[in-house]
């Protein structure tokens, strides 16, 4: 009985896959909601985890719990578990959901973006248990989450073949250069100005809460939705 049920599921999955692929054969520029759904679900999970961890840190700061022997170990463990889990969720969807070949190929290539984003979140807690000094310094120097967003905009441009997305690439590069400029001035100055300090704190806050990442994906999702609506 179990074998029959499994066989039926395989047949249904094959039918769903065939329908998805046929849609792309009929219209090469067609865009289903699959990419939109996966990216929206994934970034929401990423953002919620980032916000909860940030709130946890601020709460512990207010309650003077940062000096306790348990807070940071627990925070590190939670970070090292939750972020990889949402990355696993991404890959599970890519390989198990009924996506077309075109969608799946794109999402496989695009996986470098969530992978880099998760890596930047777990590298710091990992450094307490593994010798990751070189990688940690690399992350702080070039800010891999910004690099991930630039890669994201480039991949989306080539997937959708829309020259307007060049502006999105320029926007992401511009934000990254501003971050590098502010950070470089801040660390190289013995007495940075109040303006530089505030700018650095603002950029750090935006990174800690993943606001920059979230803003990027809001723009991405709005664009995908617009393209989908225009197609319909």
UniProtKB/TrEMBL annotation:
<feature type="transmembrane region" description="Helical">
    <location>
        <begin position="207"/>
        <end position="224"/>
    </location>
</feature>
<feature type="transmembrane region" description="Helical">
    <location>
        <begin position="77"/>
        <end position="95"/>
    </location>
</feature>
<keyword id="KW-0812">Transmembrane</keyword>
<feature type="transmembrane region" description="Helical">
    <location>
        <begin position="107"/>
        <end position="128"/>
    </location>
</feature>
<feature type="transmembrane region" description="Helical">
    <location>
        <begin position="134"/>
        <end position="156"/>
    </location>
</feature>
<keyword id="KW-0472">Membrane</keyword>
<feature type="transmembrane region" description="Helical">
    <location>
        <begin position="168"/>
        <end position="187"/>
    </location>
</feature>
<feature type="transmembrane region" description="Helical">
    <location>
        <begin position="38"/>
        <end position="57"/>
    </location>
</feature>
<keyword id="KW-1133">Transmembrane helix</keyword>
<protein>
    <submittedName>
        <fullName>Uncharacterized protein</fullName>
    </submittedName>
</protein>
